[in-house]
Amino acid sequence: MNMTWRWYGEGNDNITLDHIRQIPGVMGIVWSLHDKVAGEVWEMERIQEVADQITSKGFSTAVVESVNVHDDIKIGLPSRDQYIDIYIDTIRKLAKVGVKVICYNFMPVFDWTRTELYKELPDGSNALFYEKAAITDDPRQMVDRILKGAGKFTMPGWEPERLARLDELFAAYADVTEDKLFDNLKYFLERIIPVCEESDIKMAIHPDDPAWPIFGLPRIVRSRETIRRILDAVSSPYNGLTFCTGSLGSNPENDLPAMIREFHDRIHFAHIRNVKVFENGDFIEVSHRGKDGSVDVPEIVRAYHENGYQGYVRPDHGRHLWGEEKNCRPGYGLYDRALGVMYLLGVWDSLSQGKGVK
Ligand SMILES: [Mn+2]
Fold it and tell me: What is the whole-number distance in angstroms between the Cα of residue 78 and the centre of ligand 1?
């Protein structure tokens, strides 16, 4: 496995590349131009600038998370073609700085959804929490809560400017059923995958988080069946998956190791984290250790290992430890993610003893 770390960029992340260099085993930086909204042109100079910062510290630039997909593409408006042209332009530019994988999602209106950003765990740390009963019919309440909790930090998918138009966005998606959203994804993939093949960049769709529809909005990347349908829609290996155990693991019906064994050759990027799912369906993010939550992390790593997985991996969200929540982006502190890297590599290395699997 090729271990990576998500970094929000110079001046936009209190964790520096020099910090990240000291975490054993991290080979690449997962990056993006975080000030770009969906549909905006990415200038080559800006791309090159960030790529140079990353490579100057000895890291690979191979994974970008995310290039966001404009709502008009997801809704299927006539204007989608111009936004797909811009997306294609970005793919071609990213190929020039060594990008091999683009992680993206196809969730309407919201990215990941939680009801609390700093829920205290029994050990005194805190983490992102989803309380089913707190999801009311009014999405505005949840948006206000998330944006207030995030404070000074920006979060991908939670842009205040875009969410200010919430009513408008919901109205635009009113006729978008699950099948229509799927057709719009297929249309998008059919246009971009030939370019990805030329550019040698693999697309890796991120599952919906949580793995079920919310506020009446369709969500189409949430289970074995829905993922199979997407991979079959455009059968190129360049149409692949970001396999996120936290997102898919929010639904205990998803058999994650079995899904990895089935999809491994289409998984280009692995997000590994643990969630503890309660009987009422609430869930909270916990440490990466398998025993601390509902996701059998050692078995997940084993499923990758037995298939000789060479793809990119990152510890996904972490808890906030030792007071760092006062100054870190929700889910993206330093300490728990660093512990996660060591746990994942520890399991991997123990499986590799004497087998020569890197
Ligand atoms: Mn994820």
Answer: 30
Encoding tokens for residue 314?
Answer: 């990152």
**Domain ranges in the chain?**
2-352
Amino acid letter for position 155: M
Catalytic status, residue 206: yes
Q: Which member of 8, 332, 336, 343 is catalytic?
A: 332
Q: How far is residue 145 from each of residues 53, 159, 180, 198, 216, measured CA to CA in Å?
A: 34, 13, 30, 43, 20
What string of H, E and C letters represents the secondary structure of 302-341? HHHHHCCCCCEEEECCCCECCCHHHHCCCCCCCHHHHHHH
Residue 244 alpha carbon to ligand 1 centre in Å:
5
Gap between the terminal Cα atoms of the chain: 7
pLDDT in tens, 154-180: 777 777 877 788 888 888 998 999 999
Q: Topology of domain 2-352, per CATH?
A: TIM Barrel (3.20.20)
Q: Which of 316, 320, 328, 343 is catalytic?
A: 316
Q: Can 271 be counted among the known catalytic residues?
A: yes
Reported as a single tens digit per residue, the pLDDT across 18-50 is: 999 999 999 999 999 999 999 999 999 999 999
pTM here is: 0.94
Task: Measure Cα distances from 170 to 8, 71, 164 in Å.
Answer: 29, 11, 12
Q: How far is the CA of 354 from the centre of ligand 1 (A)?
A: 31
Closest CA to 25 of 355, 347, 308: 347
